[in-house]
Structure formats: C-alpha cells, structure tokens
C-alpha cells in the first residue's frame, strides 16, 4: 500500500505542468465533441443527467439562461462559492475518476 498522502505533498512544478498538459488535452477533446455534436444529443459521462439535476438543485440561479449569460468567473472565487462548489463536487467523487485538477 502506498504511503503517499496528497494532502501533505508539496506542489512540485513538474507535477503541476503534467496536470496542465493532461487538462489541455482533455479540453481539446471535449471542444471537438462540443463543436461537432448537437448539445441535445451530447453525453460526456453516464452521469450527465444526475450531475445536471444535482447542479440545478444546489445552484438554482443558473437555471435561468439570462443569468448564465451574465456569469463571471469572479462568482466562483468567493469563499461561499468555493464551499458550495466543493459540496456539489464531492457528491460525484466516488462515482468516477473526478479530481479537481483535471477536466472531466
């Protein structure tokens, strides 16, 4: 059994770069899917419907399309927003290989 503990590990620059490379590769793959398949037919995971339902339940303000159009990344940077997102995210962490460092 490994004794590596991600919670206490140093943030090594080479590891961060490797995560960035993987994230960019995944982003490119998803972009190809997003631009070639109609959104109504697109499925990125087998949990898409469950993820959406849970997302709307926890973030009802984003059900309104006009509200989403005015979204800014600053909304995610508050302490409250980070905590809300973390609670939402942990629901699915045991269902797949989801991590906060890589796009899924």
TrEMBL record:
GO cellular component, one term: cytoplasm
InterPro entries tied to this protein: PBDC1-like_dom_sf, PBDC1_metazoa/fungi, Polysacc_synth_dom
Protein name: YPL225W-like protein
Species in which this protein is naturally found: Saccharomyces cerevisiae x Saccharomyces kudriavzevii (strain VIN7) (Yeast)
Ranges for domain Polysaccharide biosynthesis: 15-95
Annotated Pfam families: PBDC1
Highest taxon, organism lineage: Eukaryota
């Amino acid at each position: 059994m490994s004794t590596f503990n991600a919670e206490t590990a140093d943030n090594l620059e080479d590891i961060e770069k490797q995560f960035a490379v993987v994230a960019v590769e995944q982003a490119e793959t998803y972009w190809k899917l997003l631009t070639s398949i109609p959104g109504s037919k697109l499925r990125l995971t087998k949990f898409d419907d469950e993820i959406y339902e849970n997302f709307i339940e926890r973030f009802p303000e984003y059900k309104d399309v006009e509200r989403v159009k005015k979204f800014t990344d600053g909304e995610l940077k508050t302490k409250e927003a980070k905590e809300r997102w973390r609670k939402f995210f942990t629901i699915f962490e045991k269902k797949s290989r989801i991590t906060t460092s890589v796009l899924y």
